[in-house]
Amino acid sequence: MAQQTPVTQAGVFTNLASELPVVPKSTTSRVVLDNDLIRVVEFTFDAGELLTEQASPRAVVVQLLEGTMSFTVDGAESTLHVGDVVYLAPGTPHALVATTACRMSLVMVEAGAHLAGEN
């Protein structure tokens, strides 16, 4: 797991793809950045691997970096291709299945006061 990174400390994170290869018949992940406001996790999935339905208390942004996957958001399924982005409001149920070997970046953001109706 990544070391806690203070919100006030900038950083550059390199060589992520080479340090987290796609492993046959596996789903792998690595926490890249973690603090009170944001958490960045890189995932790899071999073809056929999946994440069962779940929800996060944080707002989530997913970007597919390699491959294709089927991504279900609140019961609606979409096919994602390289570069596609998914936004998940806090508490939104979601699941995925890798249709090919995939790499994705997941960013969780603490929504804080915005949950109380602020924009």
From TrEMBL:
Q: Which InterPro entries match?
A: Cupin_2 (IPR013096), RmlC-like_jellyroll (IPR014710), RmlC_Cupin_sf (IPR011051)
Q: Which domain of life is it from?
A: Bacteria
Q: Where in the numbering of this chain does the Cupin type-2 domain appear?
A: 43-109
Protein name per its UniProtKB record? Conserved protein, contains double-stranded beta-helix domain protein
Species of provenance:
Propionibacterium freudenreichii
